[in-house]
Design a protein that fits this description.
Blueprint (H helix, E strand, L loop, with lengths): L10 H25 L6 E5 L2 E4 L5 E3 L3 H4 L8 H13 L10 H12 L5 E7 L2 H16 L3 E5 L8 H6 L3 H4 L9 E4 L4 H7 L4 E6 L2 E2 L5 E2 L2 H14 L2 E5 L23 E4 L11 E6 L4 H7 L13 H4 L1 H14 L2 H11 L1
Parallel strand pairs: 5-6, 5-7, 7-10, 10-11
Antiparallel strand pairs: 1-2, 2-3, 4-12, 8-9, 11-12
Helix pairs in contact: 3-12, 4-12, 5-10
Length: 338
């Protein structure tokens, strides 16, 4: 269908933009998008829809940028928060205190089950994954990590090594040592690897890119019991499953299982500003490790993380955590999923 209220783009302009994209960014990506009929130019991004600037066709955005737009595209409350943040905050000093950081961490912790009450601020899902693994390694003093076949956690450092697909890793070998891959939903496979040398077990409660594979209740319960027995940190990747996407605030709530560490990103930003976080249990050895490691951050101490813990993204995300994923919204997701 046609759609008005935005500036149309003619085919000549489209071809020129694709030429520039190929020249300065990637010709391969242009070819891929053309072959998949995805070479569209998004306009009028509102709610769950967008409009192709060339054809004028309106599309329902079922991809949602892999789970970034849980409160819709162009959400006016989030945009208003962005405008206020631009008026009031610069990127700040990552070591300094600020009200937005404190309020955001407080609200995020209040939305998490059990004793998941301690927060580490990050910039992206990959960044948050790396921070969660570093926390587990540092707190336990162990090196090895178990991740799942077909898992997806990001494209840098620890997160790339934690991926369960060779496709993403084979060009960058050797990667971080000590990562072991087990079959998803196969508790016995995890048990064969697990030992007191393992720092963490990392998994998505629902594998996203892996093919929408849902963890069974028995599997999750067994992992929790196994990790408790061996002192292993259980880590849930709720980057795509968090903020109401499965009908509850967090996917873990379907199982009644609380991990030792959880990390999230994507939709936490409201779809307008990169943001992420790690939330971990207020237990030993996690709390004491962070307390004595004064500058524990997702990245090395020498590397600034302005975006991760500056006031601006926290100010933008705060209204998302206040009103963006209410129980009513999550209930609506659950009904539609059924």
């Amino acid at each position: 269908m046609g759609y008005s209220g935005y500036q149309r783009m003619d085919a000549q302009e489209r071809d020129y933009i694709q030429h520039l994209f190929g020249k300065h960014i990637s010709r391969g990506q242009v070819r891929y998008l053309r072959c998949a009929h995805l070479d569209i130019y998004e306009r009028s991004r509102r709610g769950c829809t967008m409009v192709d600037a060339v054809s004028g066709k309106k599309f329902f955005d079922c991809f949602s940028s892999a789970g970034c737009f849980n409160v819709g595209r162009g959400n006016p409350k989030i945009q208003e928060a962005l405008e206020k943040a631009l008026d009031s905050w610069d990127m700040g000093s990552h070591l300094a205190l600020s009200e937005p950081k404190i309020r955001f961490a407080e609200k995020l912790a209040s939305l998490c089950p059990g004793d998941l009450k301690k927060v580490v601020l990050c910039t992206t899902g990959a960044d948050a994954c790396a921070a969660a693994i570093k926390l587990a390694k540092g707190a336990t003093g162990r090196n090895d990590v178990i991740t799942m076949n077909k898992a997806y956690h990001g494209h840098e450092g620890f997160s790339l090594s934690a991926n369960g697909k060779d496709y993403y890793k084979e060009l960058f070998l050797p990667l971080m040592p000590g990562f072991h891959i087990a079959e998803f939903n196969d508790l016995e496979a995890v048990k064969r690897i697990a030992s007191k040398d393992i720092a963490a077990v990392v998994l998505e409660p629902v594998q996203g890119e892996g093919g929408i594979h849902v963890a069974t209740r028995e599997y999750m319960t067994g992992l929790r019991r196994l990790c408790d027995e061996l002192g292993i940190m259980l880590i849930f990747d709720e980057v795509q499953t968090g903020f109401g996407r499965t009908g509850k605030m967090w996917c873990m709530e379907h199982y009644g299982i609380v991990p030792d560490i959880m990390f999230t990103s994507k939709s936490i930003s409201g779809g307008v500003y990169p943001n992420g976080a790690v939330v971990y249990r207020d237990i030993e050895p996690l709390t004491s490790y962070v307390e004595k490691t004064r500058c524990f951050t997702p990245r090395t101490r020498a590397e600034p993380i302005w975006a991760a813990s500056s006031p601006r993204p926290c100010w933008i995300t705060w209204p998302k955590t206040r009103s963006g994923s209410t129980p009513l919204r999550s209930a609506g997701v659950s009904r539609k999923g059924s």
